Amino acid sequence: MQEAKPLYFNAKGLSMYPFIKNGDCIKVVPINKEKIKIGDIIVVNKEKFFPAHRVVKIIEQDRKTAYFTKGDAHKGGLENPVNLESIIGRVTEIQRGKISFDLNLPLWRCFNRFIAHLSLRHPKALTFLSKYISLAIEWRLFIFKLKNRLKKVNPLLYNTEELLLICCQKNLDEKLKKEAASLIKEGLYWQRFLELAMKKGVTILVYDALREIAPRLDIPQFVFDRLKFSYLFIISEANYQHKQLEELLGVFTKKGILVLPLKGTILAKRLYRNIAARGISCDFDFLIKEEDREITKNALAGAGYRFSRAELVEKWQWQYEFSKSKEKKVDLHWDITMMGRSRQRIEGLWQGAEPSEWEGIKYFDFKPEELLLYLCAHLSNSDSFRTLRAACDIRRALEKYAYEINWESLIDKAQKWRLLGSLYAGLSLNKDLFGHSFPKEVLTRIKISGLKKLFIRIFANKRVLLREGVKRKILDKFLSYIFFELIEAGSFKDYLAVFKRVFFPPKEVLEGRSYSARISSALTKTWWK
């Protein structure tokens, strides 16, 4: 504990029952001179053993502090007092099975103080209430088991979706391979599996993963045939698109224009080492500096691209669209979001960009922290919830740059750039789809309102992403392009602006219809389509 790093212990005994049970894994963090409060559970160094008991009484005298501890299950009096020097650390997390309890949360701190009061004043009452306290503590465990049973009402569909998510992961370890083998043996809907792989934009990842798993099991040949056909087509198209990208970057380089390719083959190469891994893009997206709009526009015009004014409302304008016969569209962005714009954000993203070169192609690219923030913003600011591609990008970035990301710095940037909600959405969805690939305490350190967290969990989860339903329709028809604004809104004025834009948009976008006709049409399409 001298290096101020947390340690993990497996609890033994029943002295803290029901709060800590035999076999629970506890996380102990050094106190670092922080003030210990009544109700905290501390680990004390008593030579041959290290009890983890609750602080029930604190006495300060002659500039010295004595801490009296007691096991929750002990009916007797207090233990001998301990001083600060003999305390190893404070228990901040309890892991019980697949459920963890973060004791730093305000609710748990209040609960701990209540138990400390009972333990000190009414130990018999605490013993009597232990069963009920255990139930109160483990309600999440009960809900977790109930949810597992409910989601396996259709085991074949569950197995289909779980296998798809395993195949979406770049590096399959032995544990994942065994889990995939188990799912295949139990049975699944192979036709549904193929539909999801292609519809969600992860064909390349799935095909590579199945080839790695195939020697272990007998996978139907038609599955490989369908995937291989799509695989070869995507690779062919990706190579053609990459050549177009090279030409465009060459045009920008000659004019001395700073551009940063968003998504596309360069991002696929960076994250997956395969330019086709992210599938086929419908356009090319570049981030440019706002002052370079005209010179970039002229450069593309010189290359044969035609400017198309797609955005009718000038104040909403955040990109230019260009088209060319038999070529993919080009989108020039000077911001990464249409609404909720932030000068500090875009300046910070450019400061977090660095020159890169690949096979003679020169361009700018985000550093790891800025890349993760952009990917989370992209997930929340478009129709990316329709595919798995954006979620897989976040997962891969977390894996690849796990040791380069400073989470304190990242959360600070997200707060300054109004991307806290997007960061929470990206990480929360990643956890739901693939499990933890980042420190467990990160989500609790992202300070957004409880209502926003609830909203994100309702619409950004595995079920909504993989299945069709009412939530899916609401997200597609109404929320796909205001989701970002809702989770990043910081005041009533921001929410009012969203409401005004949705229900009372400028006349340019009404296409000659009245407000009431537009709203009723949208509602009808949402609920009856």
SSE blueprint:
Elements: E1 7-10, E2 25-29, E3 41-44, E4 52-61, E5 64-70, E6 87-96, E7 99-102, H1 106-121, H2 123-137, H3 139-151, H4 155-167, H5 174-186, H6 190-199, H7 203-213, H8 221-254, E8 259-262, H9 264-272, E9 283-288, H10 293-302, E10 306-308, E11 319-323, E12 329-333, H11 343-351, E13 353-358, E14 361-366, H12 368-380, H13 389-400, H14 407-416, H15 420-434, H16 442-445, H17 450-459, H18 462-466, H19 470-479, H20 483-488, H21 492-503, H22 515-528
Parallel strand pairs: 9-12
Antiparallel strand pairs: 1-2, 2-6, 3-4, 3-6, 4-5, 6-7, 8-9, 10-11, 11-12, 13-14
Helix pairs in contact: 1-2, 4-5, 4-6, 6-8, 7-8, 12-13, 12-15, 13-15, 15-17, 19-22
Explain what this protein looks like in three dimensions.
- The protein is an alpha+beta fold and 529 residues long.
- The chain has four domains: 7-147, Umud Fragment, subunit A; 152-219; 233-366, Beta Polymerase, domain 2, CATH 3.30.460; 373-490, no CATH class.
- The protein has helices at 106-121, 123-137, 139-151, 155-167, 174-186, 190-199, 203-213, 221-254, 264-272, 293-302, 343-351, 368-380, 389-400, 407-416, 420-434, 442-445, 450-459, 462-466, 470-479, 483-488, 492-503, 515-528; strands at residues 7-10, 25-29, 41-44, 52-61, 64-70, 87-96, 99-102, 259-262, 283-288, 306-308, 319-323, 329-333, 353-358, 361-366.
- The chain is globular.
- The N and C termini lie far apart (60 Å).
- The model is unreliable at 522-529 (pLDDT under 50).
Which labels suit this protein?
alpha+beta; Umud Fragment, subunit A; Beta Polymerase, domain 2; 22 helices; 15% strand; globular; disordered C terminus
